[in-house]
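Long-time lurker, first post. I've been practising inverse folding by hand and with some scripts of my own, and I keep getting stuck on stretches where the structure tokens seem ambiguous. Below is the full token string for one chain I'm working on. Before anyone asks, I'm not after the true native sequence, just a reasonable design that respects the backbone. If someone could post their per-position residues I'd love to compare against what I wrote down in my notebook.
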């Protein structure tokens, strides 16, 4: 008989069970209009992903049951595959439920519970153990949930149970190269079992995580027959013939899974924009405010904020000091004008002088050092937080991953804020992202991209007065933080031992700062935050 399938690639709000259920009901109505009879949703659709310790609250599960009743009543004439948590004998399970004609046909419990990187599923869920194969319009559909497809067992179970097509629902977060990894894996699974696979993914920002969508379908040979858009909500429509062979009604098809992989820098930029947009809007802020220094970090953050929220919702604040160069102010104002962003200029000099006078007895007889530099940063932090409080706009911090790694940032100063868009972006990638944004329209002044980076907290200061060149620093940080390599392994790569030892020492000593930093968008395989949890007090 065959059937028409739609994948509802949805942007959901964690914890908003009633709101997420409304989105499901809207998708059902749309599917009926499009004559679809099988509708597939992402993992944990009703709670959003990851719900974390909300899963420990009985009220959440009660709301899920209420939402399921509404959705079940709306399932007449259509089959729904949808993710939600289910409390049953043995504990709590992460399930894919099948509803049709007002009846819950069956539930598949996720077997492989990831407990690495950003995932904590073993904290909440018990694993399932059995396959689920349902019949829909003469086709035998085998279900699995996210991590199940990364392991051999669950898909093999479904194949042995007689599935003609595998359906895998996901909440798979983005990092650089993730889309290609997914498609390569699913292609391999399809070839191993000789079965088509439908892969439905979540989209949207949730705290540090960004889910990039990119739902797709492959035939039994592993050829990708359809892809949904990335970094946006989408409905991907497929036709299944009598044998379960999929063909695209909407979406793009290509035999090469790499052909439509977004260029790395472009995909990172899209992830940052989506992460900022959803963090600001889902948390109810009216917009964003940020300090503009004339440097590349604040320039990139401004561009991301405007692309995410619109120029009218973004405010830039210049806070010059006695050390701020004229060109820094000129470049910051030029970019703001190009992007249509309102700005204000507030000198920190009166506050800095007042603090110096107040601290004179405590600092008597001591030479100027980093204390005076940090004081300037904290003057700026107070100003920005005051504007944020009064306006209802979230303060975006502008520090990058290289700075966060080695502690080249001031607590309660430039680290003050509510969200850190480029917290997981190494400095060299900051420059590539800025150039990428300029390739679309030249909003960042060229001088910002060519001048030596500087915090401008003392005369003639540059970052390389305190740090190794970023061409050396960033690779060392990648090997130490993302690859877990130690001193000897990194030195064997050709880096000077003294430099490597110093960088590692800086990373380890500044864990206490990072623990107090605001959340930021994760774009690498090892971001600071839930991805990398090191003790502050350590003798390692």
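-- Answer (accepted) --
I ran through it position by position. Result:
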């Amino acid at each position: 008989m065959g059937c028409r399938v739609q994948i509802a690639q949805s942007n959901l709000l964690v914890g908003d069970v009633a709101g997420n259920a409304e989105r499901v009901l809207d998708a059902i109505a749309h599917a009926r209009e499009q004559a679809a009879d099988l509708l597939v949703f992402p993992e944990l659709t009703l709670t959003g992903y990851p719900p974390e310790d909300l899963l420990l609250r009985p009220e959440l599960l009660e709301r899920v049951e209420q939402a399921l009743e509404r959705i079940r009543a709306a399932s007449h004439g259509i089959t729904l595959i949808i993710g939600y948590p289910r409390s049953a004998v043995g504990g709590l399970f992460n399930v894919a439920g099948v509803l049709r004609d007002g009846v819950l046909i069956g539930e598949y419990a996720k077997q492989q519970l990831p407990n690495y990187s950003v995932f904590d599923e073993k904290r909440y869920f018990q694993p399932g153990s059995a396959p689920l194969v349902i019949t829909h319009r003469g086709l035998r559909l085998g279900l699995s949930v996210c991590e199940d497809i990364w392991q051999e067992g669950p898909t093999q179970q479904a194949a042995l149970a007689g599935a003609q097509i595998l359906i895998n629902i996901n909440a798979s977060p983005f990092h650089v190269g993730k889309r290609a990894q997914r498609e390569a894996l699913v292609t391999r699974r399809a070839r191993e079992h000789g079965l088509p696979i439908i892969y439905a993914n979540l989209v949207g920002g949730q705290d540090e995580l960004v889910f990039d969508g990119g739902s797709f379908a492959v035939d039994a040979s592993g050829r990708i027959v359809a892809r949904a858009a990335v970094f946006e909500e989408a409905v991907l429509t497929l036709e299944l013939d009598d044998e379960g062979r999929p063909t695209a009604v909407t979406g793009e098809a290509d035999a090469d899974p790499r052909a439509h992989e977004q260029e790395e820098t472009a995909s990172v930029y899209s992830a940052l924009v989506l992460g900022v947009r959803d963090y600001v809007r889902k948390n109810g802020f009216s917009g964003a405010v940020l300090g503009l220094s004339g440097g590349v970090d604040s320039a990139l953050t401004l561009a991301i904020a405007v692309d995410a929220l619109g120029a009218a919702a973004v405010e830039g604040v210049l806070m010059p000091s006695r050390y701020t160069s004229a060109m820094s102010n000129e470049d910051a104002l030029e970019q703001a004008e190009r992007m249509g962003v309102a700005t204000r200029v507030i000198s920190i000099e009166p506050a800095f002088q007042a603090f110096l006078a107040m601290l004179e007895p405590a600092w008597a007889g001591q030479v100027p050092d980093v204390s005076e530099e940090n004081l300037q940063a904290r003057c700026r932090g107070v100003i920005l937080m005051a504007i944020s409080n009064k306006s209802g706009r979230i303060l975006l911090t502008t520090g990058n991953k290289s700075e966060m790694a080695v502690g080249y940032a001031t607590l309660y100063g430039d680290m003050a804020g509510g969200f850190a868009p480029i917290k997981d972006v190494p400095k060299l990638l900051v420059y590539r992202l800025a150039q990428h944004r300029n390739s679309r329209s030249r909003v960042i002044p060229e001088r910002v991209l060519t001048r030596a980076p500087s915090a401008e907290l003392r005369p003639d200061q540059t970052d390389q007065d305190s740090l190794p060149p970023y061409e050396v620093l960033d690779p060392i940080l990648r090997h130490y933080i993302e690859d877990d390599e130690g001193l000897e392994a990194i030195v064997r790569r050709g880096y000077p031992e003294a430099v490597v030892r110093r960088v590692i020492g800086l990373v380890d000593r500044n864990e206490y700062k990072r623990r107090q930093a605001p959340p930021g968008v994760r774009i690498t395989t090892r971001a600071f935050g839930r991805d990398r949890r090191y003790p502050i007090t350590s003798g390692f």
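A couple of notes from the structure itself: Confidence is low (pLDDT under 50) at residues 255-261. The chain is about 40% helix and 20% strand. Happy to go over any region you disagree with.
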